[in-house]
Structure formats: structure tokens, C-alpha cells
Amino acid sequence: MRHKRSLTRLYKALDLFHLRQKITACQRKLFSLQKKKNVKNKNLEETVWNF
């Protein structure tokens, strides 16, 4: 029972909107790094943006 309460508190503390914003920021950074290195890999671009 204690584990259930602990997990419930953890779940309620998660800010999924903020987490999604962080993921998107990381995707943008990866895409930017890819462009800087002139990597021509369409599959990488699709992977970064279709997470």
C-alpha cells in the first residue's frame, strides 16, 4: 500500500506539458547540430521530429 501511495504522488507530480516542452527543445537542438555538421540523412530528421 505504501508503494501505491508513493507512486500516486510521483505521478501527480509529473508535469507532462513541461516534459513535452523539454523533449521538443532537445529535438530542436539535435536538428540544429545535424544541420551544422551538414549531415544529409533524411531518416535522422524524421526520427528527431516524429518522436
What's the SSE blueprint?
Elements: H1 2-13, H2 16-36, H3 42-49
Question: What distance lies between the first and last C-alpha atoms, to the nearest angstrom?
Answer: 35 Å
Estimate what percentage of residues fall within beta strands.
Answer: under 5%
Percent in helix: over 70%
Mean pLDDT: 81
Radius of gyration using CA atoms only: 17 Å
Largest sheet: none
Number of helices: 3
Q: What is the N-to-C order of secondary-structure elements (H for helix, E for strand)? A: HHH
Low-confidence parts: none
| Spatial shape | elongated
Going by helix content, strand content and strand pairing, the class is mainly alpha
- How many DSSP-defined strands? 0
Please identify the oligomeric state: single chain
Give your account of this protein's structure.
This protein is an all-alpha fold. The protein has helices spanning 2-13, 16-36, 42-49. The longest helix has 21 residues, at 16-36.
